[in-house]
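Contributing new records

If you add data, match the layout below exactly. Sequence lines come first and carry their own label; structure lines follow with theirs. Keep one chain per record. Anything else will be rejected by the validation script.
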Amino acid sequence: MAILSIGVAAESCQNKSNPELAGAWQIDSVFDFYNGFTFMDTHPTPREVHVYQADKTMLRRGMGEEKLYYYELDGNRLFIRDLPNSAVSNEQEIVRLDSSQLVLRKNKKPQFEGRNQERYELRYFSRVKP
């Protein structure tokens, strides 16, 4: 029982110290992987800013426009929707989240038919200071 109490206490302390997704994040780079071929774009255009708000909305700013989305977190999975109750249009995995960096992984469909294909994208964001 004592071990269980220590584990629960340690986890609750750890959760309080974890940074939150809420805030503004600017995209720094995009890494593409497709069956062993890679490409790193260190100057993605436009330099989008994603602003995650406490009310579960996300504003995407870029190219002089702003679009509103709705998000949901389930562990390390991030779901982005166009409307609050719509089907998931975008599912990503949070690979890293700390006070200064957010890394999202999105699995993508292969462009060609065949088995044993792997295609994904990593998006690197840095926190924008208010």
